[in-house]
Structures are given as C-alpha cells and as structure tokens.
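Practice set, problem 2.
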Amino acid sequence: MSEIKAVVKGVGHCLPKRVVTNAELAKTVDTSDEWIVERTGIRQRHIAGDNEFTSDLGTEAAREALKNAGISTDDVDLIVVATTTPDFTFPSTATMIQENLGIRHGAAFDIQAVCSGFIYAMKVVNSMIKTGAAKTAIVIGAETFSRILDWEDRTTCVLFGDGAGAFVVQAEEGGNNGVLATFIRSDGRYKDLLHVDGGPSRTQTVGHVHMIGNQVFRHAVKDIAQAMESCAERAGLRIADLDWFVPHQANQRILDGVAKRLGINADQVISTVAKHANTSAASVPLAMYAAIQDGRIKRDDLVMLEAFGGGFTWGATLLRY
C-alpha cells in the first residue's frame, strides 16, 4: 500500500483592519520608526479591535482556506488551533471555531507552544493523518497578542501584532506532495528569557510579555538552523534542495542570521515581518499565504517552515506544496 501523506490543499488568512505604524507607537512610548526598523525590520502591525477575538480571526482564516481548497466543512474531521491568546481559559478556541463553521462532527482542540505553536500543530496533524485518525484537518495559528502586551514597555510592545492563518490538510495516498518530515524540540531551562508573568494557577491574571531579546536571538539562530538541518535530513534532503524558507516572523535579523548560517539565498526567504510584526503562532501560515498569493510559492515547490518561541520551543516542517 502507498504511503499516506498530509497534503496542504488550501491556505487562508485574516488580519485585523486596524494598522498601527511605528510612527503611531512613537507618540505613546519612547521609540521611533528608525529605532524599530533598525533592530527588527518591523514597520507596522495589525491590532485587533475591542470586539475582535482570536476565535473570530481563526474562523475567517479557516473559511478562506476551505474556499481555496475547494473543500466542504462536511469533510472536516479535525480542527487544531495553535494559540497563546485563547478567547477563554476553556472551552478551547478550536471548539468555538468549530461552532462558528457549523461543524457538528469530528474533534477540535488547542495547542500551546507560543510562537512554535503552528509547527507543533502540524506535527500532531501530520501524525494523526498518517495513522488514519483524521482525513481532513484545519490547522490554524491565531493570536490577539496585543492583549498580553505592556504598551509602556518599548522592548516588547513594538514587536508583536495580531492575526490568523490556516491550512486545510488532507490525507492522500501516493504522490509526491505533502508533509515530508517534521521536527520539534523544547528546553524549559530558558523560560525566564521569554515568558508571560501571569496565569490562572499562579496569579489569577493574564499577565504581560517579558523578554531578554539579545539572549533569545542567540538561541534562536542556532536552534532554528539545527532544526531545519535535522528536518531535511529526516526526509533524505539537504538545505540546498529547498525552494523556499518560510520562517516565523519574529525579527528580520533572526531571519537573516539563519539564512546566512545555512547558506540560503535571501531571495528564497519569505519575510512579512515588516507588515505583520510578530504574530506568534499565526506568523508562519500568514507568511505562507502571502507568498502563495503573490505567486512565489507554487505547487510542487519544496518548502521549509520553522519557528522558535517561548519555553523555549522550536521546530520545523518540510513539505512539498
């Protein structure tokens, strides 16, 4: 029997209408457009409105992904949402999106691995599809990260934005397309370098993001490069075989650092950080969507997805689109 693969059939996105530029931030916090661009490459970010929630963004991204895939909600038997900013402690944001889409069958649940969440979700969905536990899944990265920012802390508030991206992934037997390899890792020793100082159990509060940026940068470049090499090796391929590199959009300097370390041409790196900032678990599918829409990523292209986030967590997914 031929191998079953998890094939990306459609990609969707959702970005809040409100755009906040660096110049606008500079009116309320001690920063400037020049300072932000030089250190991060970010020029603007989308911020959710008061009545715009993570489930809303995820729902719209899922709807577009289903439309682009030409697949009905009747066929969906799994929804996995990667998010650090759920609507509620429970129920899961995934079940809320399931309800919004009118799906009354299958299963839905959330995954929390911060910025690496979408990569972790792809790992889980790929495993479930390959074992026959699911046939058609919606994988969503959705965040309203603006809700956990201290807007007086210029070291963090300038970095993040809100949004959602979604893949529709379906089982196919035989063929060359689909997920070829996955790789995930974590190391809890470094939690204090990037964390939120609140939570239901410890403080009964939401808390705010705190980060020691220079140390996160150092770990990110090294660990991302190793994850990508390991992921490619599992598929019997080399980094040189890649057509496209779709990284987590944390910081342009990290993207450049990883590409340089692995010898990847800058033209092969998909970057949306200037327009989206860091949308945490949403950033990888948002970047993938942008590159498909503008015609860069095409069917049969070999694409490496990667992310690095708080925990620390990190990982990569290699797929033939």
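Problem 2, part (b): a different protein.
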Amino acid sequence: MNTNHSLLILPDDKACKTKSFEIPDVQNGYIWHHFFKPSEDELKALPEVYGLNSLSIEDCMDDDQIPKIESFANYTHILFNTFHDEGNGWSAEEVNIFISKSFLISVTRSEALNSVIAKMAERIATSDSGNWRSGPSWLLHLLLDKIVDEKMIALEVLEDELEALEGNLIINSSSLDFQRIQKLRNSFVSLRKSLFHEREILSKIIRNDTDFIDSNSLYLFRDINDHAIRLFEQAESCRDATKSLIELHLAMANNQMAIAANNTNKTVRRLTFITTIFMPLTLIAGIGGMSEFTMMTGFENWQKSYSILMVILTIMGLLSYFWLNRMDREK
C-alpha cells in the first residue's frame, strides 16, 4: 500500500500492487482497489475499467462534497468524511467508496486514514480468516468502522481541550482565548455536520435500501450506526458547551464589572457622607475664623467663645452623622 494505488485480490490471499489498471480475472473472490492521492488521469481511467459513472469520478476530484450515498446500475457510491488535526485546526476530508458484487474501490487524500487502511490491508493479506472473506459488504463494514472510530478519537481530543478551557476559565476568568474557542466550536460544527449525513447513509444501508450490500451483513452496520448517533449527540452537546463557555465568560466579566462598580459606589457614598457632615461645619468654621467674630465676642472673651464654637461644631457634626446614618438604614 505504499504506491499511490494498490490492488488487493480477496479472498485468494494474494496481494497485488500495481501501477496499471489491468484487472486480473477473479473467479471466487473480489477486488479491493485502494487509491491514495490519485491523479486526475488515474481517476478518469476508472469508468472504462470498472464501469463507474463520470459523475462519481467528479465527486472524487471535488473535495467539498457532503457525505452521501448514490445507487447506480452496477455499483453503489458511498461518500464519507474523515476528521483529522492539521496543526492549526481540525478539518474533514473525503473518502469515496464504490462497491459492487465483484469489487470495492476506496479513494482518499487523507494521510491518517491511508495509514490506517494500509495496516488493515496488511493484516487482511496475511490472514486466513475473517468476515471480509464473505464479500465486499463485509470489507465495507471494516472501512466505515475505522472511519467512525477515527472520529471518536478526534472527538475525545476535542472534549479534553474543551474541559481544559473550562478549567482555566474557572481559575482565571480573563484566561479565555476567544480565537481558540472559536476554532474549537468550528471543529464541533464540522464534525456534527459530517455525522448528520453519515447517519442518514447508515440508516439507508440498515433498511436495505441500497444494492450490492449483503443483507446478511446489515447487523454489522447497525453497530456503526449506533456509534455515529452517539458521536453526533456528543458533538452537538460539545458545540452547545462552547457557546455556554463564552456565555459563562461574559457573565463572569459582567459580575466583576458589577463588583467594581459597587465598590466605586460605596467609596463615593462614603465620601458624600463625610462631605455632607463637614459642609456646615466648614461654613461655620469659616465664619468663626474671621476677625469679626472676635470683635463680636470681645477680644477678652475669645478663649471662651472659640471653645463654645468648637462644642457647637462637634454637636452639629454628631447630629448630622446620626441623622444621615438613620436615613441610610431606613433605605
């Protein structure tokens, strides 16, 4: 499976790697032809060799297709998505599978999935037993099961990242990286979109609405469908969790702003309280500090008069304090 495309004849226990499209005559088995990053010329040769429709070939060359299943006269075309991390975010890549009674063709540009398929092909080529010997439908189950398992691993990684973000947010409300959370949300949306259509594909297979899939193998696809449904629900839940995480961050930020505003109000209130007490005292002290006050009381009585003034100011201050304090308690 190291070449761009490999031919595996099943179940005759012969592995044939080739760069040509010369298909050997298979009497009792079927052919698995796997393509990894095929060229346009290689794909355009498939209609002549396998009788594939040109529209199916166009889907293989277009990387922006949603998962789907299409039935043709001599084969069924199934399109699934793989999900992998590109380093700067998760993305989906296509896997095109063509199945008939005598062949199964898989086409992908995903290096991660190709590595998984290569290992699986090596095990099949050296194995003397396995359900895959019963026909292409059984091999199709192995491929789809691997694709869904890869999505399960991806979802677990994304969930761990989401939990880490939530933990950091609880510790430090200002630590939330909005760019990171947005990429995470986009990943959940992409995964959910892929699983939404793949559930429909698996449902059609289980209902036996498609040709070229052995009815005896349908119970295997039910297991894949159960996994896809569970993953879809998890992806939906995680997508909502990212939204809740942003809302939690905004709520915590608003709460901190409210606490800061409340502390400011308390400070202003204290200053207003003090100012209200000392304003009349300052007025009287200003008047008492004038030379006219000494002249009014007599120069010989200034010590007594100023002492009485200080007592009056103290009493007024205390009365103002108790009066304002009582009004504050009543409110």
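Answer key, part (b): Confidence is low (pLDDT under 50) at residues 12-25. Strands lie at 5-10, 14-16, 30-36, 68-71, 76-85, 90-99, 103-108.
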